[in-house]
Amino acid sequence: MHEDIEEILVTQEQIKAKVKELGHQITQDYQGKNLLLLGILKGAIPFIADLSRAIDMLHEIDYMAVSSYGNATQSSGVVRILKDLEGPIDQKHVLIVEDIVDSGLTLHYMLDLLRQRHPLSLRVCTLLYKERERAKPLELAYIGFRIPNLFVVGYGLDYAQRYRNLPYVGVLKPEVYQNNQKPERQHKSPAESS
Ligand SMILES: O=P(O)(O)OC[C@H]1O[C@H](OP(=O)(O)OP(=O)(O)O)[C@H](O)[C@@H]1O
Ligand code: HPA
Ligand SMILES: [Mg+2]
């Protein structure tokens, strides 16, 4: 275990087994359909790479890059699109692939945006779902693991762009981000404090 990690919440073995299970389920659910896996960069990279190979049918992959956390541990509340899809999705069944649903702001923004492009269907597969209060409910078709409301890193999840390469999901020692965080970053955004 890396020295900055306090506790492992989801092991490499648990992730592997869950990805296999999700891939199997998705294969059954999307048989005969034109499936597009839509990965949300950068956090979803390891998950979508493993999930795609666990899906036993032809499908497409595309990515969107959005960012709302920057180097902070709380969402800024403002989602910025850094990279858009390559083409239209009106002939596709879109499955958004996320590493984590935390405040839910990123997904709400993505779902609202993508609905306007009229995909044949639009659903979400997230590896992690944080148990916490949310301003608006979210409908999630596939959830890997429900985790407590702690800041986690690994398997794609970062703190200040680091730790994405850890093969497990772990809780970062608070002193790691408390030492580095600028005071203004510690305020809750208006969207978070409601
Ligand atoms: O439910 P939310 O509170 O919106 O948080 C979830 C989002 O935040 C993270 O992305 P981030 O904006 O940090 O970009 P990254 O994937 O490049 O790290 C994560 O990968 C999700 O996309
Ligand atoms: O707990 C988290 N860790 C890393 N990135 C995140 N983005 C939203 N929540 C988290
Ligand atoms: Mg991030």
UniProtKB/TrEMBL annotation:
Coiled-coil spans in chain: none
Catalytic activity: IMP + diphosphate = hypoxanthine + 5-phospho-alpha-D-ribose 1-diphosphate; GMP + diphosphate = guanine + 5-phospho-alpha-D-ribose 1-diphosphate
Catalytic class of the enzyme: transferase
SUPFAM superfamilies: PRTase-like
Keyword annotations of the record: Cytoplasm, Glycosyltransferase, Magnesium, Metal-binding, Nucleotide-binding, Purine salvage, Transferase
Main location: cytoplasm
InterPro entries, sorted: HGPRT, Hxn_phspho_trans, PRTase-like, PRTase_dom
GO BP terms in the entry: GMP salvage; guanine salvage; hypoxanthine metabolic process; IMP salvage; purine ribonucleoside salvage
Name of the molecule in the record: Hypoxanthine phosphoribosyltransferase
Organism: Thermogemmatispora aurantia
